């Protein structure tokens, strides 16, 4: 726990007091809850951005694979596992997964759900 002191104008102070009274909680608890809520929102936004970034990478990788397959006319010669491994590698890179991460379950899932 850490104590933080700040100065605010009368309007904000009155608003905090009103909210605290309405919720039957001290103002410091109202402020802490508000900050936690804001931090959670920022974290969700960051995760949404990472997911969007990873999705875009996977889409680009998939497009490259499809273009490569079309160019070589070798659709039947390239196993699905190769595609899945490329996509898994892209996702691992997008989410900064450590090199020593055990992705055997991910690979197994990818092979079971082509």
Task: Summarize the structure in words.
This protein is mainly α and 114 residues long. The protein has one domain. Helix 1 packs across helix 2, helix 2 packs antiparallel against helix 3 and helix 3 packs across helix 4. The longest helix is centred in the middle third of the chain and has 46 residues. The protein is elongated and about 70 Å long. It starts with 9 loop residues before the first helix and ends with a helix. The model has no long low-confidence stretch (mean pLDDT 77).
The ordered H/E elements are HHHH
pLDDT < 50 runs, ≥5 residues? none
The average pLDDT score comes to 77
E-strand count: 0
* Share in helix: over 70%
Indicate the radius of gyration in whole angstroms.
25 Å
The total of helices stands at: 4
Report how far apart the termini are: 48 Å
Shape: elongated
Structural class: mainly alpha
Task: Please render the helix and strand layout as text.
Blueprint: H1 10-23, H2 27-72, H3 80-94, H4 104-112
Protein name: Ribbon-helix-helix protein CopG domain-containing protein
Keywords for this entry:
114 residues, mainly alpha, elongated, Ribbon-helix-helix protein CopG domain-containing protein
Question: What is shown here, in short?
Answer:
The protein is mainly alpha-helical and 114 residues long. It has 4 helices and no strands.
């Amino acid at each position: 726990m850490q104590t933080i002191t700040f100065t605010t104008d009368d309007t904000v102070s009155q608003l905090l007091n009103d909210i605290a009274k309405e919720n039957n909680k001290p103002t410091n608890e109202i402020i802490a809850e508000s900050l936690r809520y804001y931090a959670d929102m920022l974290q969700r936004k960051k995760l949404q951005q990472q997911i969007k970034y990873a999705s875009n990478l996977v889409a680009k990788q998939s497009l490259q694979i499809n273009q490569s397959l079309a160019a070589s006319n070798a659709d039947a010669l390239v196993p699905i596992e190769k595609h899945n491994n490329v996509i898994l590698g892209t996702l691992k890179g997008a989410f900064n997964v450590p090199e020593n991460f055990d992705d055997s379950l991910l690979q197994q899932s990818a092979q079971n759900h082509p």
